[in-house]
Amino acid sequence: MRSWVEVSLSTIRQNYRAVRGVVGAAAEIMPVVKADAYRHGAVEVSRALEQEGAGWLAVSNVEEGVALREAGIGARILVMADFLGDPLSGESGWLQEYNLTPVIHSLNDVAAARVPYHLKIDTGLGRLGTRAAPEDIVRAVAAGKAPMEGLMTHFASAANYASPQTEEQIKKFEIVVRALHAAGLAPRYIHSSATIPVAYRRRPAWGNLVRPGHAIYGYVCPVRGPAPAAALQVRPALTWKAAVLAVKDLEAGALIGYGGMHRAERPMRIAVLAAGYADGIPHRLSNKGSVIAKGKLAPIVGAVSMDLTTIDATACLELRPGDAVTLLGSEDGVSIDAQQIARQAGTISYSVLCGISARVKRVFVE
Ligand SMILES: *Cc1c(COP(=O)(O)O)cnc(C)c1O
What we know:
- The chain is an alpha/beta fold.
- It has two domains: 8-217, Alanine racemase (TIM Barrel, Alpha-Beta Barrel); 238-347, Lyase, Ornithine Decarboxylase, Chain A, domain 1.
- It contains twelve helices and 19 strands.
- It has helices at 9-23, 34-38, 42-51, 62-70, 91-97, 107-112, 134-143, 165-182, 195-199, 214-217, 338-345, 349-354, and strands at residues 3-8, 28-29, 56-59, 76-79, 100-104, 117-120, 148-152, 189-193, 209-210, 238-250, 255-256, 262-263, 268-273, 290-293, 296-299, 309-312, 324-331, 334-336, 361-365.
- The strands form four sheets. Strands 2-9-8-7-6-5-4-3 form an eight-stranded parallel β-sheet.
- β7 (148-152), α8 (165-182) and β8 form a beta-alpha-beta unit.
- α1 (9-23) packs across α3 (42-51) and α7 crosses α8.
- The two termini are 20 Å apart.
- The model has no long low-confidence stretch (mean pLDDT 96).
- The structure holds pyridoxal-5'-phosphate (PLP).
């Protein structure tokens, strides 16, 4: 294989149990498996999580939910970012047929809903969710034909403890919760927390259901400002490898790759890897990132190209064509994770994981 990822299902399970250890009996856990489980493989990951006792899973759109149902996943599935009445997908019918639960973002859709739904409140993220006044929300929910099963919101700045935005969002959300309660409309599920408020134990944000994605895959982003110590310990579940296609020696002064971006200052050995930006290696790692070759960091030299990446292999003379190097993962105590790659590439770890393209084969290991 040119390039592949190994996904450890036992690590996924352990990460889920670590989340369970933090939230205890206070909240149910709805792991987020959108975008093919952040490229870890939604079906296999969902199966593992279901075996661990996850009663809910969250996806982004109806198609992702249908794929899980067709693979035999029986847990409740929340569809977080699709829309009712899509004339192309005929979504409403699919929701019923596949027992998917939609998140509704507008009061018009509350009136149109025919299946139990979760209503999303925009408390300040400025993305999906209704910004209607609490009394209008109460009126719409009371008049709706389908029952509101859950009420949710999503935070904009959970990782920034120097910002008051999360507290402001929690306050706004609580006003809506209280207005609904006062009208006798208590939703069964109240939820606001992705990974960060779980990992840093921001209890008032949990409600009775939490929605961790990143943590399930082994990541908690560092936070800013006066935060408490992280309560959650998780490990990356995904390792990404690429095969060495060729190894060769270059003379001092040789140029490497498109644009002659790197010049060998002295005689140098390079290895050509069978993966490039079409596989998801950020182009911004050109002349910048590293991989692990034979247990040692080896710098990327020259431009990352579509299908190939060149590394400086001078320090690992035993590297041969056919050997595998690690793009993301660890070897002999040396490790590179999605967060490090993201920092070097000027992006975020989520984007690094989701950027691993479909042509990178996936192998599941325990
Ligand atoms: C993606 C997403 C999550 C999960 O976020 P993580 O930071 O990966 O834990 C939770 N809730 C919503 C609404 C999301 O879109």
